[in-house]
Amino acid sequence: MTVKDWFEQRKEMQIARRAQDTQIDDSIGKLWIKCFNCNSQLLRKEVEENLEVCPKCGYHFRINARTRINQLFDEGTFEELFGNITTADPLEFSDTETYKKRITLAKAKTNMNEAVISGIGKIEGNTVAAAVMDFEFMGGSMGSVVGEKVTLAMEEALKRKIPMIAVTASGGARMQESILSLMQMAKTSCAVAKLNEAGLLYITVLTEPTFGGVTASFATLGDIIIAEQDARIGFAGRRVIEQTIRQSLPADFQTANYLMKYGQIDMISSRAELKSTIAKLINLHKTENKK
Predict the structure, then answer these.
(1) CA quadruple 9, 10, 15, 21: dihedral sign
(2) pLDDT tens per residue, range 12-32
C-alpha cells in the first residue's frame, strides 16, 4: 500500500464514521429533547403526550399550526378553508435568495402553502371560525396571503354568525412584500371592526412568539385576549428598544406575565387549559346574548 492509498483509506474511514455519528445523533434527536428553560433531557414521547409542555418545569415549547389544531379542536371537526390561495411575487423581490425560492423552501419544510391555516371547527361542541398561524413558515410573517386568509376566516364567521378565534405566532410583516404586507394590518383590522359591529365574539390567543405588524393589528383587537403561558409578545424586539431608548429593560419585559401585569391582555392560560377556557368563554357569550 502506498502512502497515497493509506491516506485515501483513512479519509474514507473518517467520512464513514462521521456519517455513523450523524445517524446516531439523529436517532437520539428523535428520542430525546432538551428543555430550553430547565435544561432537562426529556423523552420526546413524554413531551408530546404532555401537549409539548416540559413535564419538569412546565415550559411551553413552540408548536406548529397543525399540532395546535389537533390540540384545540374536537377530533375530526376542523375543515380547512381557502387552502388553495398561494403566494405571488409582485415585487420580484430578491436579497440573498429570491422570494420565490424562500416560499418554495418554506412549503417543503412545513408542508403548508402559507403561514396560516384558516377554517371551521368545533371546540367542545361550539362551532367557530379560526385562523391559526405557524411560526415555522418564514417566521409566521404576514404577507398578502396571510392577511387575506385571516380576513376570509373573519368573513366566514360573519356569514355563519359564529365566534372567531385567531391563534397568532409571528415575527411581524413580511419584508419581501413591502407595503403590500403592511396593508394587511389595515385589512384585518377592518374585518375585526365588522365582527364587532355584528356583535360576534372574537377571541385572540397570543402564542410564542407574537411580534410586529400582527401584534399591532388583529392580534390585540380581540374582545378577549388570551396569552399562552411563556409566550413573548411585543412590537419591536427587545434589543431594538434598548438601543433606541438607551436603557436596560426588565428581565420579564414582553412576556405574558409582564403584559398581564400592565393590563395589555385579559388572561394567561396554560396549554392544557386553553381549549376548555375558550369553550367557557364562548358559552358565557351565548348566555349573555340570550338575556
Answers:
(1) positive
(2) 666 656 655 444 444 445 789
Residue 247 lies in a domain: yes
Distance of CA 41 to the CA centre of its chain: 25
The number of beta carbons lying within 10 Å of the beta carbon of residue 45 is: 12
Q: Tens digit of pLDDT for each residue in 241-259?
A: 999 999 999 999 999 999 9
Say if 47 falls within a structural domain. Answer: no
Quote the CA–CA distance of 244 and 180 in Å, as a whole number. Answer: 27
The model's pTM:
0.87
Angle subtended at Cα 157 by Cα 153 and Cα 158, rounded to the nearest 5 degrees? 115
Q: Is residue 57 part of a domain?
A: no
CA dihedral 79, 144, 135, 230 (to 10 degrees): -90
Alpha-carbon torsion, ordered 202, 208, 210, 211, to 10 deg: 170
Cell numbers given for 231: 409566550
**Can you give the CATH number for the domain in which 79 is found?**
3.90.226.10
φ, ψ for residue 85 (rounded to 5)?
Answer: -80, 125
Domain that holds residue 120: 62-290
Q: Structural domain tally of the chain?
A: 1
